[in-house]
Structures are given as structure tokens and as C-alpha cells.
Design a protein that fits this description.
By secondary structure, the protein is mainly alpha-helical. Helix content is 57%, strand content 4%. The protein has a two-stranded antiparallel sheet. The relative contact order is 0.14.
Length: 191
């Protein structure tokens, strides 16, 4: 079994803040986790190009299915277990269910493509990376959540401004790096 990558904060924010911070599958609930479009358990890569924002409910329900498998299974399960649905649509044909599922698959696939394009946008990714470059892997989901709530407003403003250079106040990246290095304790101090 492959080891899972411990993603840095910038990866979490790059994915979770895409699609206006909503789950790519239901497009209603706030995204809470990163989901592998092609499931990791089925050989999908553990890389940015295979990650999308999802809510807990959709992620748990999708489990190790591809989006089309999940949508069709959910539609059929709902149809055959809903007594209200059975009573109303007793004569409904399986073909109608197939058409509805197909339409929903197309909608979700279009959202996934748009979100992956947003995630892969080099300017957006660079801006997020530069704003979070001194933070490593988050220690908990609550750390991601608290940083994200502050970060989303800055990201939205930057997006509206066309993602200006993160240090447009005249401070160079080198001076920021030097300041960060100065804050780190020396080896003698840590021993």
C-alpha cells in the first residue's frame, strides 16, 4: 500500500477555497475535505490535479467510487428506497432514471473540470503559495479551518484584483526570507 502524502497548508487552501469554498459534488455545502476524483484506493494519484473540494457527507457517500458511479448508485438507491417516489412514479422507466443520472453526471463533471482549472491556475497557485510558504503541513483540521476563515477573504480580494504580487508593498521575497531566517533559533540555541 502506498503512503499518503502529508499535504502542506497551501495545498489544502488551494483545493478547499476553489469553487467559492463549496463542495464540488453537491455545490451547496461548505467544503471540508479534499477528495480524490479518481479514488486513491483505486490507483488515483495523490496529487493536486486529482484533488477537489468536498463536504463530509458527499466525501463519505462517494467513498471509493468515481463520480459517475457514485451519482448513478445514489440515484437508483434513492428511487428504490423512497416510498414517496415509488407511489408517485410507479410507471417510471429505468431509462428516465438513466437520463437524469446522465444529466447530473455531466453537471458534476463540468464543475469538476472548472474547479481543476481553477486549482491549476498558476497565478492563483503562486499567490496562495507565497502567502503560506512559511507554514508546513497543518497539525489538525481545526488549524486548517481557523487559518482558512481568515484566508478566504484575502484570497477573494486578491482574485478580484487579478492576484497582485503578494508583497506589492515593495518588500522583496528575499527580504521576507531573510526576516524568516532571522526568527529561527540558531543550532546553538536549540541544543
Amino acid at each position: 500500500m502506498r503512503a499518503r502524502t502529508r499535504f502542506t497548508l497551501w495545498v489544502h487552501l488551494t483545493v478547499l477555497c476553489a469553487n467559492d469554498g463549496l463542495c464540488v459534488y453537491c455545490n451547496e455545502a461548505k467544503s471540508e475535505v479534499m477528495d480524490h476524483v479518481i479514488p486513491f484506493a483505486r490507483g488515483g494519484p495523490d496529487k493536486l490535479g486529482n484533488l477537489v473540494p468536498a463536504c463530509e457527507a458527499c466525501n463519505a457517500s462517494k467513498n471509493d467510487k468515481t463520480p459517475p458511479e457514485w451519482i448513478v448508485a445514489r440515484r437508483l438507491r434513492h428511487h428504490w428506497t423512497s416510498t414517496e417516489h415509488k407511489a408517485r412514479d410507479e410507471a417510471r422507466k429505468l431509462w428516465d432514471l438513466h437520463r437524469e443520472a446522465h444529466r447530473e453526471c455531466e453537471e458534476v463533471e463540468e464543475r469538476i473540470e472548472a474547479v481543476l482549472d481553477e486549482i491549476e491556475d498558476r497565478t492563483r497557485r503562486k499567490w496562495i503559495l507565497m502567502k503560506t510558504m512559511f507554514r508546513g503541513a497543518p497539525s489538525s483540521r481545526s488549524e486548517i479551518s481557523s487559518f482558512r476563515s481568515q484566508f478566504e477573504m484575502k484570497l477573494k480580494a486578491a482574485q478580484e484584483a487579478g492576484f497582485p504580487q503578494p508583497w506589492s508593498d515593495g518588500e522583496s521575497v528575499l527580504s521576507v526570507l531573510a526576516r524568516q531566517e532571522a526568527r529561527k533559533p540558531s543550532r546553538e540555541e536549540t541544543s
